[in-house]
Design goal:
The chain is α/β, with parallel strands linked by helices.
């Protein structure tokens, strides 16, 4: 089964200020490796145009568009003839684009929510500009970044005909193991987020201020200028994916910190969690429901609730146990969390959706009826 797949996503060409590019690159490459033809379409916006770290690709075609009108003029036939059309979260003008895709595409249509907890919280509070309650039932398939109860909410509250989890992943081939001297005791990779910052300050900045004889690091963009970094902590404004491996492997431990909406919903692992495991970096994570279904606490990673936990780990953890945690996490990733695993899952979801597909006109009528009934 070789599919023609079109993905309309936030960005695959630039990883600046977003985690979507890393997720898309891993998945698209795995799909190409399995014989599928993939075209990725993204809005040509200045902040990504000026920071492109993958302007072209060997494993997919990349198309840019400047507006909705430009999108329609360039890519109408491509979308109509595709076997599978996927629209991602945070795509500019996503609601209008989703209306057009679900009306025009002949193949299976899917919404890939790389931000499920944020999306569901926003929909409950009033809505977002990249997906709407009326649009969700029109997609054949809702691919969710989150598992657990999120899938029930998407199907039962928002009337998706089929919601399935599609976690992100990390390519172990892009992050081969190697032995390098540790430069930092603890590090973190992630863009600034106001709801994540208090936990980051507790689990990283506070230990850095207390352990002045050790070195710490944060890599990521959009951090406010007024943040007072401890003297022992280095801030790297942006780190392209090509440097992630060296970054992770230069840390004795790496920190995983989860956004508030994702912690509340649970079952929402970040791409950085998988990347760290692929690189063989020992992981310290905050706690959230479902973490144990991804990596086993105490055996494949460590869980910290406050700064004292982090300080204790950094000052007392034997090196052999530290390395054992990293090895077991990487083994778990190889068994369950590679891009190849996600590609196989997507193929299965495509077959399932194709077998139960409701005609487009009927889905549109059902969506309108559900809206009118509210």
């Amino acid at each position: 089964m070789n599919l023609d797949i079109v993905i309309v996503g936030l960005s695959i060409t630039s990883s600046w200020g977003n985690g979507h590019a890393t997720t898309y690159r891993a998945l698209v490459k795995a799909l190409a490796d399995r014989g599928h033809s993939v075209t990725f379409l993204e809005r040509d916006v200045p902040w990504y145009r000026d920071n492109r770290d993958m302007p072209t690709s060997e494993y997919c075609s990349i198309g840019l568009y400047k507006s909705l009108a430009d999108f329609g003029a360039r890519y109408t036939e491509l979308l109509r003839e595709a076997d599978l059309v996927i629209m991602g979260s945070y795509v500019p003008d996503g609601i209008a684009l989703g209306d057009w895709i679900t009306a025009e595409a002949k193949g299976i249509t899917a919404f890939y929510d790389i931000d499920t907890p944020v999306t569901l919280a926003a929909l409950e509070a009033g809505g977002v500009d990249y997906i709407s309650a009326h649009l969700i039932p029109r997609f054949d398939l809702y691919l969710s970044f989150s598992g657990g109860t999120a899938l029930d909410i998407i199907e039962q509250v928002y009337n998706s005909p089929m919601a399935r989890v599609l976690y992100c992943s990390a390519d172990p081939g892009a992050h081969p193991e190697f032995t390098a001297p540790a430069k930092w005791s603890l590090g973190y990779l992630g863009t600034y987020s106001a709801d994540r910052q208090p936990l980051l300050e507790d689990l990283l900045l506070d230990p850095a201020a207390r352990l002045v004889d050790q070195s710490f690091v944060i890599a990521g963009s959009k951090y406010p200028a007024e943040i007072a970094w401890p003297d022992s902590l280095q801030h790297i404004p942006h780190l392209p994916p090509s440097e992630h491996r060296h970054f992770y492997q230069a840390q004795r431990f790496t920190l995983n910190v989860t956004r508030a909406d994702m912690k509340a919903l649970g079952f929402s692992p970040s791409v950085r969690l998988f990347e760290a495991a692929a690189c063989g970096a020992p992981i310290i994570s905050d706690a959230w429901p479902g973490l144990e279904t991804i990596f086993k606490p105490g055996e494949e990673l460590l869980v910290a609730s406050h700064s004292d936990d982090v300080v204790d780990i950094l000052t007392t953890m034997p090196n052999d146990r530290r390395l054992s945690l990293a090895n077991r996490a990487r083994e778990r990733l190889l068994r369950e969390h590679t891009p190849a695993h996600r590609a196989v899952q997507l193929e299965a979801y495509y077959r399932e959706a194709a077998g139960r597909r409701v005609p487009v006109a009927r889905r549109i009528r059902r969506s309108i009826a559900l809206e009118e009934a509210k």
